[in-house]
Write a structure and sequence with these properties.
Layout: H1 9-18, H2 46-60, H3 71-83, H4 96-123, H5 130-145, H6 152-158, H7 167-173
Helix pairs in contact: 2-3, 2-4, 2-6, 3-4, 4-5, 4-6
Protein name: Myb-like domain-containing protein
Domain Myb-like: 36-107
InterPro entries: SANT/Myb
């Protein structure tokens, strides 16, 4: 007889020893599982975005610490500033990683919109006002990126800071000032 044969007594004894107590599947309570429910994703509000922008600007321009900050300490300082803001009392605190991720999205979208706004100003006809330029910038952004720009509140907070200032706006307020460092502002599909 083979040692691992299904007909062997050792295998039968092993099977019977494992099934000594029947399990009633109907009595298992599925609702009391110990698997935690995933946390509900909380959308960022306009107010939170504005406080995050303020936290980032104040932390990144701190003359004492300057840019000699390690990544973790930099974002921890931003999260501390953000969570201690009196404007956000009653809001759920955010982790530094959440602040970093949101800032990345805000920065990316605002930089893209700067390019759209600059293009709108260049195409602006005589007699058109700021509202006309904004509508045109939104249209350009949508045509270039196939999504609606929803962070106008963030752009309005950042638009006069050097990094996000468009060439056209810079020339209007301070002649000869160099373009900010928002990165590549080349727009998709336009020359």
């Amino acid at each position: 007889m083979e040692p691992f044969s299904l007909d062997s007594l050792g295998f039968m004894n092993l099977l019977s020893s494992q099934t000594s107590q029947p399990i009633d599947v109907g009595s298992i309570d599925v609702g009391s599982s110990t698997v935690p429910k995933p946390l509900e994703r909380k959308k960022w509000t306009t107010q939170e975005d504005i406080v995050l922008i303020s936290a980032w600007l104040n932390t990144s321009k701190d003359p004492i610490v300057s840019n000699q900050q390690k990544l973790g300490s930099f974002w921890n300082r931003i999260a501390e500033y953000f969570n201690s803001s009196p404007q956000l009392s009653g809001f759920t605190p955010r982790e530094w990683s959440q602040c970093k991720q949101r800032w990345g999205r805000v920065n990316e979208q605002v930089c893209k919109f700067v390019g759209s706004y600059e293009a709108a100003l260049k195409e602006q006809a005589s007699g058109q006002n700021e509202n006309d330029a904004m509508k045109s910038a939104h249209d350009i952004f949508f045509n270039d990126y196939q999504l609606k720009f929803t962070l106008e509140h963030a752009w309005r907070e950042l638009r006069f800071d050097q990094k996000w200032r468009s060439n056209s706006v810079s020339e209007r307020w301070s002649k000869g000032e160099k373009e900010g460092s928002c990165g590549n502002r080349a727009r998709v599909g336009r020359g």
